[in-house]
Amino acid sequence: MSAQFRRADGARVLADLNALRAFGRYKTGVHRPTFSEAHRQSLSWLAERLPDAQLTPTIDGIGNVLGTSAKPGPKLLAGSHLESQNHAGWLDGPLGVIYALEAARVLNPDPSIPGAVEVASWCDEEGHFGSFLGSRSYVGQVSEADIDAARDRSSPRSMREALTEMGLAGRPRLQAERGRHIGYLEAHIEQGDTLEHSELKIGIVTSIVGIWQYRIVFAGEQNHAGTTRMAVRKDAGLALARFCVAIDARFPAACGPRTVWTTGRITLDPGAPSIIPGRAEMLFQIRDDDPAVIARLEQLLHALADADSASGSCQIAVERIRTGAPAMMDAAFQDTIEAASRDLAGGRSLRMPSGAGHDAQVLATIMPAGMLFVPSIGGVSHHWTENTADADIVTGADVFVETCRRLLADAASIIPQAG
Amino acid sequence: MSAQFRRADGARVLADLNALRAFGRYKTGVHRPTFSEAHRQSLSWLAERLPDAQLTPTIDGIGNVLGTSAKPGPKLLAGSHLESQNHAGWLDGPLGVIYALEAARVLNPDPSIPGAVEVASWCDEEGHFGSFLGSRSYVGQVSEADIDAARDRSSPRSMREALTEMGLAGRPRLQAERGRHIGYLEAHIEQGDTLEHSELKIGIVTSIVGIWQYRIVFAGEQNHAGTTRMAVRKDAGLALARFCVAIDARFPAACGPRTVWTTGRITLDPGAPSIIPGRAEMLFQIRDDDPAVIARLEQLLHALADADSASGSCQIAVERIRTGAPAMMDAAFQDTIEAASRDLAGGRSLRMPSGAGHDAQVLATIMPAGMLFVPSIGGVSHHWTENTADADIVTGADVFVETCRRLLADAASIIPQAG
């Protein structure tokens, strides 16, 4: 069996990741928002590399890059994304794209390997214009009206204007060809510290947690900060602060072992130093892979709001604005990653859910999907200091290439080869 | 004595206030920010009314309107402001200007009254471009460099650009002529509910409280809201919420009887729903007329911050960004308002500090100053629903006119008449 292993060219993987890092470099990370000049350069760079893997590149009308193979046999789709969060890390996205490119370069030209890896870079996974627009377009979930409505979250630019600036306006959008792929494989940095803390090298993703998001609005009474006695105030900002502290006190007894919750944004209205806020709003998010846990926490959230509304000076309204079903990863993909880890990472792997969203959850709606993680130093994510040790990047690449080989071999043994 | 009383023309006062309300009308209030078209119209309107009071109008290079009198005898300066907070009340500012105009109309043409009331509308008391820029310019506290640096808080417009649009660029700025005025009198709505609750009609301001303002910064660690376990988070937003709740718990035992404190603005950085805030900031304000109380509360603020920094996951820094000394109102002015209230408001007056800042605190740095309040319905302020009963407006105008008459008479009895 060991004679069949295929390994990555570790130096080539690291060189490619560093080449991408140059597009929009920011300190040790990158600033490469969707449809920025740096993003455009990274897409062109990838398209130019794909022929090395005997793939024909296409950049489609929503900024997806896809490399397709004419090789007979099963096709495995693999990839991730190339844009970044603002002033964020160099590996979040590119790692998965370069692993896919490397697997394609190693496996596709080899006539002893049945079938091919096809490489994808999904546009805007990071959500500058929407939510997984590129992968959702590929699986048929994005309409032209959705694109008409999409706007850059940090500039007044519309998505249509951005597509025109990128030279992509009017291009057709690629759609998944049903039955073409045996599945989708994506690698990513863990973005947490579980692997590092346990001295493990590979995370085998069991599920991608759902994200439930809430807008919580506190209605008090706007008034003058100098003339309104403390006793008669209806301070919406203070009510919000109390609510955050109450969540922090009550959620731990009701949550699951890996539930996380976050208040990411707070707005006081009108937000002036001399005015008691009459209205306050917070964006609140809960993530878990167990809908029963979410249901319990959502009930608690409403109970806290009702109790505070009844006893306090402000009215609190909880509105769910995003409901995310968790996505389960394919069991055979998990087993294959585990087997490859046993052979090429000393078995130092762990099955774990993904707390972050990934394009794999979108692809999982139309084909079997799997994901593997490599360790993140200090668990840092969405910050320019995000990093992974070079040795861990190379180990991950070896496991990824070998997982692709096994998935193709397994498929070839049961699927009649075409062409 | 009663034969000498002068009363306001109540219908004229109400008509004038309603005329001003038409400039920038918003629901039952006004939206008349500094140097808006509505503001420009209100300044012109006032300048056109001043000759009715035998005053010569000037609109100066910072947007102050001043009516000066050639009448011999003592001069009393009186006024307030005409711009409003955004979408705010119709009386906050205009009441004091129209009272001053009415006193001047009643007293100046009357040859039996010694001296005259001079009317001022101070620009930007509401702080759209700075802090009391108009009155501070008049007393010599604003440099050309200050104006160069001033910017609109709710638009990208500089103060220079705004002055040019208003047709005021290049005009000289009026400066107080030392010794010209026996003092400054200003009327204002109370902006609180003390008078209404006590069924009183006139507030006699004893002092204008100082405002101490703080920027409190919470430094945690920015991270991914899906992948970072609750146990290892350093959530700056949660630390801020806890701090607000701690202030609310600890301040009441350390404050004075009329101290107020307010968190008017909260910012989480980066402020995205899927990112744990690594930094949070709040603008915090304390008002009192006793510096000893402020010193005690400031010490408590630092103690809370130090304790939380030592025990919690975030570092908290407290920075004082504004120090406001309280301004004492002149004792003789207070006595005169009280005497006039006894005769024209049935004695239903109360001595009280002002929790809000007013131009009177600036004028008080160069001349005796006094202020009187009329009731605010429900204590509402800085909101378009702010209001005062018509009868209370008229009572206030009577007391104001009579206070002016007595102040001029008292001054004439001890000052040799000029001219």
Q: What is the third-level CATH name, the topology of the largest domain in chain A?
A: Aminopeptidase
Query: What is the terminal separation of chain A in angstroms?
Result: 27 Å
Largest sheet of chain A: 9 strands, mixed
Which structural class fits the helix and strand makeup of chain A?
alpha+beta
Let me know the average pLDDT of chain A: 95
Briefly, what CATH class of the largest domain in chain A? Alpha Beta
Assembly of the depicted chains? homodimer
Walk me through the structure.
Two copies of one chain form a homodimer. Chain A is of the alpha+beta class and 419 residues long. The first copy, chain A, folds into two domains: 2-208 and 327-414, Aminopeptidase, CATH 3.40.630; 210-322, Alpha-Beta Plaits. Chain A contains twelve helices and 17 strands. The first copy, chain A, has helices at residues 10-21, 37-49, 94-107, 133-138, 144-149, 159-165, 194-197, 236-254, 291-311, 331-344, 359-363, 390-414, and strands spanning 25-26, 29-30, 56-59, 65-68, 75-80, 116-121, 181-189, 202-208, 210-219, 223-224, 260-269, 275-276, 279-288, 315-322, 327-328, 349-354, 369-374. In chain A, strands 3, 4, 5, 6, 7, 8, 15, 16 and 17 form a nine-stranded mixed β-sheet that branches. In chain A, strands 11-13-9-14 form a four-stranded antiparallel β-sheet. Chain A has a two-stranded antiparallel sheet with strand order 1-2. In chain A, a hairpin with a 5-residue loop joins strand 3 (56-59) and strand 4 (65-68). In chain A, helix 1 (10-21) crosses helix 12 (390-414) and helix 3 (94-107) packs across helix 12. The longest helix of chain A is centred in the last third of the chain and has 25 residues, at 390-414. Chain A is globular. The two termini of chain A are 27 Å apart. At the A-B interface, strand 10, helix 8, strand 11, strand 12 and strand 13 of A face strand 10, helix 8, strand 11, strand 12 and strand 13 of B. Chains A, B: Keywords: Hydrolase, Manganese, Metal-binding, Transferase. Chains A, B: GO terms for molecular function: hydrolase activity; transferase activity. Chains A, B: This is Zn-dependent hydrolase. Chains A, B: Residues 209-308 form the Peptidase M20 dimerisation domain.
